[in-house]
Design goal:
Length: about 400
Amino acid sequence: MSRAQFEQVQQLITANVRGRGQPGAVSQGHALLAGLLRCRRCGRKLLVAYTGRMHDILRYVCYRGQLDNGLPRCITFGGLGVDAAVAGEVLRVVQPGALEAAVRASCEAAEAYDDVLETLQRDVEAARYTAQRAGKQYDAADPENRLVVDELERRWNRALEHVQALEHRLEEHRRQQPQRPAATLEDFQDLAAALETLWHAPEADLRLKKRIVRTLIQEVVVDVDTQAGEILLLIHWQGGVHTELRLPRRRRGQNRQHTSHDIVEAVQVLGRICPDDLIAGVLNRNGLLTGRGNRWSRERVASLRSKRGFPPYCPARQQAEGWMTLTQAAAFLGVSARTLRIAIERGEIAGEHPLPDGPWVLHRSAVETDVVAQFVKRVLHRREKGGVQTTRQQSFAFSTT
């Protein structure tokens, strides 16, 4: 073992010892960031705790000061969201390097294949030379000297068998690993998505994930902003680069089975113009699920509205409050729905679009402004101008025939 290898082994042993500011060896728990989180308030490492009825809810806590010195606890928060956010940053950092590593690994594999192929070819040539030489010695021997002839024949047969074995290995090597052109970055364009799929696969090795995280991250300084309801993360990457994240902190009483805030807001906005069954169809079309992972139905949308206190859809109330769909607003202004949508996307007219694959929601006050009136006037003017131009073109065509 060289001096460099010895020092590398000693550093690895030191890093696997818990305490003294070291994250310790990779454990079997579900905490991805175990040993990497450091409290911004007291400077101590956070501990891992599992709560819940089945003791399977991950939490990161900082009460080392309370255990050692009787100090109050610093911070505590759920660990699932933090682990997911840091894992997303790791994948974002690794993906460009993964492309280069994949290309390099492919090139190294091709070089190793060529090296083995060249070695086998040289061995076959050497064995054939040896067999030819043994055959010549056998032919040159005196037939009357039976002992010498028998020995030379055995040597020739062994040489031929060795040639046959090497040729078989050469053909098997060519059959198992056929030659391919050198890999390029274009060949691995889908590797980033595949890497994320492998990371989130249920059968993925969690200890391997932890090793990857520890290879890239030195530590994560964490704090909790109680007033803003956020978790502050400062990731110290290996090499001196830092990344700051602000994550929403789950409020008391919330859990993983709660419907996300974005879906709740979308249901509230869509409820102004759509009944519950249409809202369920829009949510399903956008690939959104309930907190329990189920598809949306009219009953589930109604249950969500009831719990949140949202009123049900009513055409009379929609008209009284002034809410309109994109088609209704376009008919009200006398323009096409496509023209109105382009104007909304350009920011000329205010409108709400809660889901990418869903309807637009507009208010009457947003389309009864002077700016919108000028916009409609320009559209109608262009339409009339286009109609006059078409008439002139038609008259010119008739006059030339």
